[in-house]
Amino acid sequence: MISFFVCLAILIIGFMLYSKVAEKVFGPDDRKPPALSMTDGSDYVPMGTPRIFLIQLLNIAGLGPIFGALAGACWGPSVFLWITFGTLLGGGVHDYMVGMMSMRHKGASVSELTGTYLGNAMKQVMRVFSVVLLVLVGVSFSTGPANLLAMLTPNVLDAKFWLAVVLIYYFIATFVPIDKVIGKIYPIFGICLIVMALGVGGAIILGGYHIPEITLSNLHPSGTPIWPTMFISVACGAISGFHATQSPLMARCLTNEKDGRKVFYGAMVAEGVIALIWAAAGVAFYNGTGGLLEALGNGQSSVVYEICFKLLGPVGAVIAMIGVIACPISSADTAYRSARLTLADWFKIDQKLIKNRLILTIPLLAVGAVLTQVDVQVVWRYFSWSNQTLAMIALWAASVYLFRRKRIYWLTALPATFMSAVSCTYILMAKEGFQLSTAIAYPIGIIFAAVCLGTFVFTCVMGKGKNADRPAVEEPYAV
Questions:
Q1: What share of the chain is helix, strand, coil (3-state, %, to 5)?
Q2: Is residue 422 part of a domain?
Q3: Mind listing the pLDDT tens digit for each residue in 223-237?
Q4: Residue 211 placed within a domain
Q5: What span, in angstroms and rounded, lies between the C-alpha atoms of 249 and 178?
Q6: 49, 91, 155, 245: least surrounded by Cβ within 10 Å?
C-alpha cells in the first residue's frame, strides 16, 4: 500500500511543480482568446474555469481511466509507475500543449495544428486519421450503454430501442451549442466520476484490502509482455491521443490563457489519480492479477458494477450505473462533436449557421449508426493503437511548435520519442497488426523511435529542413 500512496503523492506534487514547468515553457499571456474574439454562440462560447475543468475531465476521461486502468492492472502494480509518470511527463504535457496551441490558433483542431507544424501531407493524414478515430470512439461507446439500459428496463425496451435513443442524443449534443447540453450536465457527471473514484479508493483502504507493492515483474497470468501492451492498454489513464481531439473544444471556451494549466494539465492529472485508484482497486478487490483477469472475462462494466456495489452498497451501485452508462455516452457525443469541427476546419464550413452544422452532423451519425452493427471488440482493438499513434503525432507537432518559438522543445520531444517506440512496437506485435515476435518487433520499434527523433533533430535543430526556422504562426496579441 505504501507504493500506492507514494505514487498518489508524486501525482499531486508533480502537478504543482511540473505543470508549472510546462506552463513556463509555453508562456501564456494576456492576449484575447478565441472564446472572446470569435464568440459564435455555438462552439466558441465563454464559460467559467471550474465548469470547463469538469467538462474537460469528462471529455477526456469517460470510462477510459477505469477500463484502461483495470486492464493495465492485470500486469500487476508495475502499472502504478506508468500511470504516475506517464501522466506527469507525457499525458499532462500532451494535453496542455495541444490545448494551448489550439487557443493560439483560433481554436484549431489537432489535424490543422499538425499541418501547420508537420506539413501539408501530415495534415491530410491527420484529418482522415482523427475523424476515423473519433467515429470509432462514438461507435465503441454506443452499443455498451444501450445494452446496459436494456438490462435495466422492461423487455419491450430492447437494446435496439436504446441504441436509437442514444444516437438521437448524440445528434442533439453534437448539433446544439456547447453550453446548452454539454455545458450544463457534464459538470454534474464529472463530479460523479470523481466521487465514484474517491468512494472506491476510500473503501479499499478502510476495508482492509491489500494493495500490493510495486514490482517490475510481469504478473500477467497469460504472460503477455509488459512492453508495449500495458502502455497501450492503460491509454487514457496515462497518455491518450483522443485528448488531443478534445482539448480544442475547451480551447474555444476558455477565457484566459493562464487558466490553461488548471484545465488541460489539471484534468489529465485528475484522470491519472482516478486511474491509479481503479488500478489499485482491481488487484486488491480480486486478490491479485489472476482473479482480476478472470473477472474481466465477464466484461469491464460488470467488474465496475461489482466493485462499486460490494464496496459502497446500493448507493455505490447507483453511482456505478451512472458511470458505466453516462461516462461512455459523454465520451461519444464529444467525439462526434470533435469530428464535426474537424471536418468544418477541413472544408472551411462556417458552423455559425444551423444548416451547416446539419450538413456535417447527419452524415457522421449515419456512418456511426451503420458501424454499430460491427463487433465492438474489433473496433476497440484498432482504436487502442490509433489512439496512441495520434498522441505520438501531436507531441511531435508540439515539439516543432516549441522549437520555432525558441522554447525548450525536449519537454515534448522526449515523450514523443517514447510514444513512437510504443506505437510502432505494438502494431508490429498485435493481433490486429503484423503479429511479429518480440525479437523482431522490439528492435524495429526502437529504430523507428530513433529515426523519428533523428528526423526532428536534423530538420529542426540542425536547420536542414525546409522552413525549419520559420516562426510559429499565432494569433496576435490583443490590442
A1: 75, 0, 25
A2: no
A3: 999 999 999 999 889
A4: yes
A5: 9
A6: 155
Phi, psi of 432 (to 5 degrees): -85, 0
For 181, which DSSP code? T
| Domain carrying residue 283 | 1-107+123-378
Handedness of CA 235, 236, 239, 241 (dihedral sign): positive
Cell of 312: 459502497
Within-domain flag for 266: yes
- The predicted pLDDT at position 478 comes to 37
* Cα distance from N-terminal residue to C-terminal residue, the chain: 54
Residue in this structure with the C-alpha cell 462533436, named with its chain if needed: 337
> What is 350-377 written as a DSSP string?
-SSSHHHHHHHHHHHHHHHHHHTTS-HH
Q: How many domains does the chain have?
A: 1
Distance CA 292, CA 283 (A): 6
Residue 13 grid coordinates: 506534487
- pLDDT tier at 381, thresholds 50, 70, 90: low
CA–CA distances in Å: residue 366 to residues 31, 135, 147, 271, 399:
40, 10, 20, 31, 37
Nine-digit cell string for 290: 489472476
SS (HEC) of 34-88: HHHHCCCCCCCCCCCHHHHHHHHHHHHHCCHHHHHHHHHHHHCCCHHHHHHHHHH
Supply the CATH number for residue 173's domain. 1.20.1740.10
Cβ 87 vs Cβ 269: under 8 Å: yes
Residues in the chain: 479
CA angle 71, 110, 249 (to 5 degrees): 80
How many Å separate Cα 141 from the centre of its chain? 14
For residue 192, the tally of other CB atoms under 10 A from its CB is: 17
Q: Considering the chain, what is the average pLDDT of its residues? A: 90
Q: Is residue 400 part of a domain?
A: no
